[in-house]
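TL;DR need structure tokens for one chain.
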Amino acid sequence: MYLAKIVELGSGDDIYLRAAHPYTDGLIKAIPIPDPAATKDSVDRVAVRGELPSARNPPSGCRFRTRCPRAQDLCAEKEPLLRAFGPGHVAACHFPLQDSAEGPLAAAAVE
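>> reply
TL;DR here they are.
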């Protein structure tokens, strides 16, 4: 969840192994590694960057777009719908990290 919007839902294994939303991926990369040598060798562990936008006046479109490395113009124009990324795994992202299993889902079907 990001600024009161669901960005990704799924089983623990699916989320950790196949995160579809950049925010989920950033949160996973922010988990500390207990081995200092592994931390030094890990160059791909960039967590979420930037300032958290106002919850009172959230950004238009995708609320994560102001901090997302994959954001494009569409992200400011249109809020992404939840899409399936496997059984029980959904995410709301225009430019996800994984290929979607199908098209956008109706919000009522997920709630």
